[in-house]
Specification:
alpha+beta, Chorismate lyase, two-stranded antiparallel ribbon, single chain, 2 domains, Arc Repressor Mutant, subunit A, six-stranded antiparallel beta sheet, 8 helices
């Protein structure tokens, strides 16, 4: 397994070698890599070179380094999507070849907060429908969804019968969700969320906060979706102007 020198920087060769070992199954998902001392001897490189390679691998979400514990191989994301394409969670799960499912945590009307009024650009907003659900893929929890819809647009009974919020809104309002403004944030440990998603405390989540609009620029849906980062990855196409 010792690195054979070529024209590239040594740490780049180390990165490629570790990725190859993961691809070949020598290092499995969730498995702890040998210690830095052991791995540097196996590869025939200095610990400084190894640390640089591991740093980049962690930035690329290939591994996770836990201080005082070791370095672990991350699971490959099962679901991937371009963030510029607005699709439902149901569609994403189906596209990956998995069976989508839903577990309702609560479906109720709540009084709109001042923040809700600002988000929906409606100072007269009184109540909103709040729907909390766990989305599953082949019965495994992968996303926790908190959706908010202004009162009067949908019925809660209909909401409990429909997996896709997009379809629910279209059926109930005859309006189509056309676009969304999205913010992405990393999320660290939160007991209630992590328990519902069966996550370990060290695992990170990706939070997508989205305000959805109709073709008439009406704010109809606010979503806070907590995605398991070991199951989902998102990418964006950026063009130079």
């Amino acid at each position: 397994m010792t690195i054979k020198p070529d024209s590239r920087h040594l740490y780049l060769q180390v990165i490629d070698r570790i990725k190859q070992e993961i691809e070949s199954g020598n290092y499995k998902e969730g498995e702890k890599l040998p210690s830095e001392f052991e791995l540097s001897k196996i590869l025939g490189v200095s610990r400084a070179t190894l640390r640089e390679a591991l740093r980049i691998l962690e930035e690329d979400h290939v591994v996770t380094r836990r201080h005082g514990v070791g370095t672990f191989v991350n699971p490959k994301p099962v679901f991937t999507s371009g963030i510029e394409e607005l699709t439902s969670v149901t569609h994403m799960i189906k596209e990956s070849g998995k069976r989508p499912g839903v577990k309702f945590l609560s479906t109720k009307y709540v009084y709109a907060t001042e923040e809700d009024c600002v988000k929906f650009n409606n100072q007269n907003l009184n109540k909103i429908a709040e729907i909390k659900r766990i989305r599953t893929a082949n019965d495994h929890p992968v996303v926790l969804c908190i959706d908010k819809i202004p009162e009067g647009l949908i019925s809660l009974d209909a909401a409990r019968q429909e997996d896709s919020i997009f379809k629910l809104i279209e059926k109930q309002t005859n309006k189509r969700i056309a676009y969304a403004v999205t913010y992405i944030e990393p999320v660290s440990y939160h007991p209630w969320i992590y328990d519902h998603l069966n996550c370990s405390p060290e695992q990170s989540l990706l939070l997508l906060k989205q305000m959805h609009y109709t073709e008439d620029d009406e704010a109809y849906l606010y979503s806070a979706n907590y995605f398991r980062s070991d199951r989902f990855s998102f990418h964006v196409l950026r063009k130079r102007l």
